[in-house]
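Recall that a protein's primary structure is simply its ordered list of amino acids. Everything else, from secondary elements to tertiary packing, is in principle encoded there. The following example makes that idea concrete.
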Amino acid sequence: MAPGYYSARITTEAEAGMEPTIRWPQGKRCAVALSFDLDGESPWIHRDPALAERPLHMSMGAYGPKTGAPRILKVLDRYDLKVAWFIPTWIVERYPDVCREIVRRGHEVGHHGHLHEKPFFLQGGAEEEEALLVKSLDIFKKVLDLRPRGSRLPSADPSKHSMELLKKHGFIYHSNLMDTDLPYCHKTQHGELVELPTAWCNNDWPFFGFSAVPPVGHGIWSQEDVFAIWKEEFEGAYDEGGFFNLMGHPQVVGRPSRMRMVSRLIEHILGKGDVWIARPIEIAEHYLAQR
């Protein structure tokens, strides 16, 4: 083992018979990725187009880009952290100023559909999915002058075509599947696509996402309970020298009480002194460099 690295080992079904080693840089014990899905109104409209005419749900979604995102950016600045924001391009067009501010502050911007379409449920197959992907890439270029290299598909729900299409269009990684804890690679016709695995328990939406009519969610959890879950998930990853991938949605986690909780979690992670908090693209590229 090269000096200055901590090793974590993993065997996945995709890499049966292999025992690849992930070595985190600069002697760090584990890696942490923080990311925010800036969905805004898009998932409500995609869920039911009639909700576009309902002020209640449009205001719930708009809280993300209008209020939650600025609060999150201030918290990230406080700790000098750079993270990833996965943004539907419908939101990029509707709220270009906050999206440009995210880029200006040095954060990564990733692909997250156009109007929060879930690829698994698209009726038009690979052709419709690719057309939406190309549309989003064009909007990213036009509005933000960038080309995302990472993707989190809406609701982390890819189709059987998604990985091939993402790699075909130059993506380095996506962050959707839940079959393991550490990064690994999918083999496609166009090369390898890194998977940065995720989990529902590391996602704020199952705990905080809520609508009365139409019914969405399972009630509103205490942020103290969620802090305990996330802290122990991180501690488990840290103990194993692994990878902790935390996902937030500004329209729910961007509330003042919840960002106070996230701040405490960040302070707990930083307090270890040997954790690598990095943008997902950095983690994906670091993983690829070791293969």
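The domain at 28-290 is CATH 3.20.20.370 (TIM Barrel). Residues 55-78 form the longest helix (24 residues).
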